[in-house]
Design a protein that fits this description.
This is Trk system potassium uptake protein. With 480 residues, the protein is mainly α. The chain has helices at residues 4-21, 23-32, 36-57, 67-85, 87-91, 97-108, 124-152, 172-199, 204-215, 232-245, 249-258, 267-290, 295-310, 325-337, 350-368, 385-411, 416-427, 449-463, 467-470, and strands at 377-378, 381-382. The longest helix has 29 residues, at 124-152.
Length: 480
C-alpha cells in the first residue's frame, strides 16, 4: 500500500515552497512597475490554496516512507510541481499552456530548451522566474542524487550511497543536515558567480540571472543571443562555474568540512576533468588549424561549447555546426556524456562510462585467463553484479526511450535530424539539438504541440535517470 496521506503532505510542502518563491518575481515586477505582478499573484494564490489543502488532508503523526512511496514521490512530484509552476507563463501575454509547460519542465529539469523569443525586451519578472526555476531544479536534483537515488539503486547510483542515502527515521536528520550544507554551498557558489559576472561587465540583473542558470547547468539566458551578447571575460567566468556545476556538490561540502581539497582524489572527477581538457584542446587545435582562428579565441570557443554541452548547460555562444562535420559529430557524442553524479548536470554521467570500460577491460583479461578471478573496484568500492546490471539496464532503457521519442517526433512531421537530436537533447537534458530548427541558433517554438509534450516528458525521464519512472510501468509495482 502507498502512504497516500504522507505523499499528499509532501506534495503540499513542495507547492508551499513554490508559492513562496513566486514572491521573488512579484518583487521584481513591483520594482520595475510591470503588469505581471497580477499574473504571479493569481498563480501564487491558487498554488498556495492547493498547498494548504494538501497539507491539511495529508497531515499524519507518523512519517515513514517505503520504497514504493519513494519511487512514486520521486516520479510524480516534479511533474505536478511543473504543472503549477507553468501558470505565470500561461497568464503572461496569453502563452498557450503547452508552451508554458514545456518552458517550465525545461527549466525545472535544467534542460534549457526554450520556446520563447524576444527575451531582450521581456519583463524582468518573467526572466527571473525562468532563471529561478532552473536554480531550484538544480539544488533539488542534487539532493535527490545524494539522498534518494543511491537508496533506490537507480542506474548504479548505489556506488555513491552515503549515510544520508536512506529515508528511515534514524537517518532522516542526517539527510536534512546534508541537504542544508548542500544548499549553503550552492548559494555561496551562486553569489560568487554573480559577482564574477558583474565584474566581467554584466549588469546586476543579468549577472544574478545568469549565475542561477550557470550553477544549475540550465542555460536559460536573458538575451536571445545567449552568452554571445556578453564579453569574452564573461565567457571565461561561465566556463569556470559551469565546470563547478558539473562537479559533485557534496565534495565541496566535504572539502570545506575537512579543510582539504578532495576533488582530485575522486576517480569520477579526475576522469571528467581530463576528458574536458582533452576534448577542448583537441577541438581548439582543429579550429586553429582548419578555421584559421586565433588560438586563444579557438580555445575560448571550444572550451565554452564543450563544457556547455558536456555539463548539459546548453548556453549558446556560436553555431558550432558551422565548424564542419568533425565538430558536429563530436558534439553529437558529447550530448550523451554528462558530467559527474551528484552535480546539477544531466546525461549518462562519466562514472557509467568508466565502469563500462572497466568491465570491458575485465572481459579482455578473462579471455587470456579463463580461470582467473578479477574484482573490479571504483573509488574503493567493489563493483558488484547488481550495480553492473543496473548500469546495463540504464543504458538499454535510455536507448529505448530515445528511439521511441524519435519515432514519435518523426510521426508529428519533423525531419529525422530534428527528431533524433531533439530526443537525445531532451533525455540527456542538454538544451539545443542539431539542425536548422532546434540547433544552437534556433529554438523549439516551431515544433507541434504533441512534439513539445513528448519532449517535456523525455526531459523528466532523463532527469530522473529513467529507471525511476520505468519502475512505475511494471505491473508488479502495483501488486500489494
Amino acid at each position: 500500500m502507498f502512504n497516500i496521506k504522507q505523499l499528499i503532505f509532501i506534495l503540499g510542502i513542495f507547492l508551499s515552497i513554490l508559492t513562496g518563491f513566486m514572491l521573488v518575481p512579484m518583487a521584481f515586477a513591483l520594482f520595475y512597475g510591470e503588469e505581471t505582478i497580477g499574473d504571479f499573484m493569481i498563480s501564487g494564490l491558487f498554488t498556495g490554496f492547493i498547498a494548504i489543502i494538501c497539507l491539511q488532508n495529508g497531515r499524519h503523526r507518523q512519517f515513514n516512507l517505503n520504497i514504493r512511496d519513494m519511487f512514486m514521490l520521486t516520479s510524480v512530484t516534479w511533474f505536478i510541481v511543473s504543472l503549477f509552476a507553468a501558470l505565470p507563463f500561461t497568464l503572461y501575454h496569453g502563452i498557450n499552456y503547452t508552451d508554458a509547460f514545456f518552458e517550465t519542465m525545461s527549466g525545472i529539469t535544467t534542460t534549457g530548451s526554450t520556446v520563447l523569443s524576444g527575451l531582450d525586451a521581456m519583463d524582468h519578472s518573467i526572466l527571473v522566474w525562468r532563471s529561478l526555476l532552473q536554480w531550484l531544479g538544480g539544488i533539488g536534483f542534487i539532493v535527490m542524487a545524494v539522498a534518494v537515488l543511491p537508496f533506490l539503486n537507480v542506474g548504479g547510483m548505489r556506488l555513491f550511497r552515503t549515510e544520508s542515502s536512506d529515508w528511515s527515521d534514524k537517518t532522516m536528520p542526517r539527510t536534512q543536515h546534508m541537504a542544508k550544507h548542500l544548499f549553503q554551498v550552492y548559494l555561496v557558489l551562486t553569489l560568487l558567480c554573480s559577482l564574477a559576472y558583474h565584474l566581467a561587465g554584466m549588469h546586476w540583473f543579468e549577472a544574478i540571472s545568469h549565475a542561477m542558470t550557470t550553477l544549475s547547468t540550465g542555460g536559460y539566458s536573458t538575451s536571445d543571443n545567449s552568452m554571445a551578447a556578453f564579453s569574452h571575460e564573461a565567457h571565461w567566468v561561465s566556463i569556470v562555474f559551469m565546470l563547478a556545476g558539473g562537479l559533485p556538490l557534496i565534495m565541496f561540502v566535504q572539502s570545506i568540512q575537512q579543510r582539504s581539497v578532495r576533488l582530485w582524489n575522486d576517480q569520477q572527477v579526475k576522469g571528467f576533468l581530463l576528458f574536458v581538457v582533452l576534448v577542448s584542446c583537441s577541438l581548439a587545435f582543429w579550429l586553429w588549424r582548419h578555421q584559421h582562428m586565433d588560438f586563444i579565441d579557438a580555445l575560448r570557443l571550444s572550451s565554452f561549447n564543450v563544457i556547455s554541452v558536456i555539463t548539459t548547460t546548453g548556453y549558446g555562444l556560436t553555431d558550432y555546426q558551422a565548424w564542419g562535420t568533425v565538430a558536429s559529430v563530436a558534439f553529437l557524442f558529447l550530448m550523451f556524456v554528462g558530467s559527474c553524479s551528484g552535480s546539477t548536470s544531466g546525461g549518462i554521467k562519466i562514472f557509467r562510462f568508466q565502469i563500462a570500460f572497466s568491465i570491458m577491460r575485465q572481459q579482455i583479461k578473462q579471455q587470456f585467463h579463463p580461470n582467473g578471478v578479477f574484482k573490479e573496484k571504483y573509488n574503493g568500492h567493489r563493483v558488484t553484479d547488481d550495480i553492473v546490471r543496473s548500469i546495463v539496464a540504464f543504458f538499454m532503457l535510455m536507448f529505448v526511450v530515445i528511439l521511441g521519442l524519435s519515432i514519435i517526433l518523426v510521426l508529428t512531421g519533423l525531419d529525422p535530424m530534428t527528431s533524433i537530436t531533439g530526443a537525445i537533447t531532451a533525455v540527456t537534458n542538454v538544451g539545443p539539438g542539431l539542425g536548422p530548427i532546434i540547433g544552437p541558433a534556433g529554438n523549439f517554438a516551431p515544433l507541434p504541440d504533441i512534439a513539445k509534450w513528448a519532449l517535456a516528458i523525455g526531459m523528466l525521464l532523463g532527469r530522473l535517470e529513467i529507471l525511476t519512472i520505468a519502475v512505475l510501468l511494471h505491473p508488479k509495482f502495483w501488486h500489494f
